[in-house]
Amino acid sequence: MSNLMDHDESRRRFLRQAALAGAGLAAAPLLLTPQVAEAGGLFNFMVSPGDQKKVGDQAAQQVLQQYHEIHDGRARHFNELGQRLVAALPDSDRKTWDFRFHVLDSKEINAFALPGGNMFMFTGLYEKVPTEDALAAVTGHEMTHVRKQHWAKANAQQQQRDLGLSALLMIFKAPRAVQTIASLADSAISLKYSRGEEDQADQGGLDNMVAAGYNPEGMIQLFQVLQKVSGNGGSLGGDFLSDHPLTSDRIKHAQQRIAALHVNHPFPPLTPLNYNALIG
């Protein structure tokens, strides 16, 4: 929802290294064609959903080279939970994004989604969440970053700042403007979500988990666990996305949203998560 470790030892540090480690793949003739569209007299530089998936898949290859992926009951459980959340999404989201759910063997308290839909859950976080509902909360939050194209929007803003209007005009007139996947994978790692985008991901994750039949109190549980690990303020939990600030206000926002839902929406009981039973 973002420190026991320094901010430089966050998801962005790790994934930047992963992308750079795979820079050799940039030599492959796989190029991305940016979308440049006029809006209000300005130009927006957006990577298409299809190319976002290519960027995310490139970065995912590097993640899986640096971490051991688990394929036991934890992986099956996480995939089932993820697919349940996917099934509750609008048709347009299910058709656009390729959500894939991976469990990584690491004590890091971490989870993240890459552009396009690859979702990674670290065992360090997995074993700390007390309920299925809390696990659904963090998963739905990360899926919302993908659905709302937060990386692509941040990348577009960065391109506008870096290139300037004149360069964008040249790109708009060019018959084919390209960027390599590796260069975009690096930007996917280094760009930070805004607080507004984090709040949108909280809202989207809450709505998704409720639509999938989970108890939204699981989001409060998640925040409480991570707050205990990292303290109020700072990052979400340990090195769990240093761009996910956790504050008391964030918990209050979730409580307010849940209270509003309670008016006409009975929730199922929280479902305990027996992590150890999933091993093997």
Report the uncertain regions.
Answer: 1-9, 18-33, 37-42, 174-178, 233-243
Oligomer: single chain
Write the H/E string, N to C: HEEEHEHHEEEHHHEHHHHH
**Count of DSSP H/I helices:** 12
Could you tell me the strand content as a percent range? 5-15%
Helix content: 40-55%
Question: How does this structure look, described?
Answer:
The protein is α+β, with helices and mostly antiparallel strands and 280 residues long. It has one domain (7-268). 55% of the residues lie in helices and 10% in strands. The chain is built from twelve helices and eight strands. It has helices at residues 11-21, 49-66, 73-87, 91-96, 123-126, 132-147, 150-173, 181-190, 195-211, 217-230, 248-261, 275-278, and strands spanning 31-32, 35-39, 42-46, 69-70, 100-104, 111-113, 118-122, 179-180. It has a four-stranded mixed beta sheet with strand order 4-5-7-6, with helices on both faces. A hairpin with a 2-residue loop joins strand 2 (35-39) and strand 3 (42-46). It is globular and about 50 Å long. The model is unreliable at 1-9, 18-33, 37-42, 174-178 and 233-243 (pLDDT under 50).
